[in-house]
Amino acid sequence: YIMTQLCWDMDQFRYWLDAIRNAGIWLPVDVGIMPILDQAATINMALSRNGCVMPRELCEIISKHWIFPNPFDKEPFDAAVEQKKKDFKEAGIEYTINQIDEYRACGINGIHLYALNKYDDVARIVKESGIVDLI
Fold first, then answer.
1. Which residues contact 127 (CB under 8 A, 6 or more apart)?
2. How far from the centroid of its chain's Cα atoms is residue 135's Cα?
3. What does the pLDDT read at residue 91?
4. What's the whole-model pTM score?
5. Residue from 114, 105, 106, 54 nearest 126 by CA
6. Where are the domains of the chain?
């Protein structure tokens, strides 16, 4: 089987999947998904780890909940930092569930969630996405 790296860009994924299928590659495909739970972790994974493309919708979620001066600052001067983190996580969970739905619609065979030690959040995503009922 094939297990992909992290991919948030559905257009890019569909293009790749069509290309391998058109080339006669019919191995099962498991997709790597990193749940969107934390601004700094999301940006770090995209920019410094593997150059993952961030689609416009994800960039808009990050921008809407931006923590000033930046999400990497240990002591941000943003008065609404805790609420922004909470709101970002909620928007990110919704984004991740929608992404899972889109991947499933493509006919993928499995999903590899990058849990990153966030068991409770990932369990919620798994449950709410309908992949498996863990509770």
1. 133, 134, 135
2. 22
3. 98
4. 0.89
5. 114
6. 2-129
Q: What percent of the chain has pLDDT over 70?
A: 96
Give the CATH class of 2-129. alpha beta
Residues 6+ apart with CB under 8 A from 50: 5, 6
Check residue 49 and give its pLDDT. Answer: 61
Structure tokens at 99: 């992404």
- Please say if the pLDDT value at position 135 is more than 70: no
Q: For 75-103, how does the pLDDT look when each residue is reduced to its tens digit (9 = 90+)?
A: 777 788 889 999 999 999 999 999 999 99
Tokens of 45: 């994974």
Average pLDDT, the chain: 90
Cα-Cα-Cα-Cα dihedral of 96, 102, 108, 110, to 10°? 20
Inter-residue long-range contacts of 95-101, CB under 8 Å, 24+ positions, other chains counted: 95/36, 95/57, 95/58, 95/61, 96/33, 96/35, 96/36, 96/125, 96/129, 97/125, 97/128, 97/129, 99/8, 99/10, 99/33, 100/33, 100/125, 100/129, 100/131, 101/129
Q: Which residues pair with 31 in a beta bridge?
A: 111
